[in-house]
Write a structure and sequence with these properties.
- The chain is an alpha+beta fold.
- 36% of the residues lie in helices and 24% in strands.
- The chain is built from eight helices and 14 strands.
- The chain has helices spanning 5-26, 44-60, 69-75, 94-99, 168-182, 197-205, 219-231, 258-267, and strands at residues 32-34, 41-43, 65-68, 85-92, 105-112, 115-123, 128-133, 137-140, 143-144, 157-159, 190-192, 211-215, 235-237, 251-255.
Amino acid sequence: MFPYEVEYNFTLTIVKEATRLFTPAYNSHKNIETKESSSDLVTETDKAIEKLISSRIKEKFPEHVFIGEETVSDDGKVVFGNNPTWIVDPIDGTMNFVHRYPHTCIVIGFSVNKEVQFGVVYNPVLDHLYTGRRGYGAQLNGFPLCVTGETKLNKALLLCEMGGRRDEETLAIKARNITAVCVEPDACHGLRMQGSAALNMCAVAAGHADGYFEFGMHIWDMAAASVILSEAGGVILSPIAGEEFNLLKRRVIAASSVELGTVLQSKIQSIEYTSD
């Protein structure tokens, strides 16, 4: 039996409860605030869903640690240690949520000893429920997930994002990275931007894409999806060769194989962000 079955089943329950806040708001007028930049948005629904999830967790597991995007945005502190820890993004892809673009999701991960034990990523718009439990595989709506296993860049469909930091230097590096993976003679098949780190990683897990790279996301964007991807046979790397992947470092390569991940490391330039 999965050792965190109680916490996992509880997560599925509160995701359904959170969906009852998400769904009516998705098609309604939204009150929008900006955070770090004009492309980094938060809505009243982000805050309401996080408040709901955090309150339910504190009622059920009062000794557990809670890391939530909007909570951290208020006090600026991430405490990620060995204690049982819930890592939550109430709405990943808030920009998509605001514009009613259907790639947006509720994200909940659970870690013990700094290792993510399970992750749940739910897109209420498309009714896509991605789940992963360490040692027990990953699923999409109950069906097993498996990466493509693609090893070659010139046969790969990739994902990336523009991100929230829009200064000229950062955008210039991102443009060079896009060129590096799209230029002949070793050009990838294509490059897509979906607007959600969690869903991008789940897309690789599901075999809908072969690789994904991004800089500037946070632990709550990656934690849940990281175990989904690894349980589907994917690999998670730092973009910097020789550096161990770290959820707090705000950079990731997610790939269908070690070989493809290594190629991406050799092609793209890292962008430095302050760690969570």
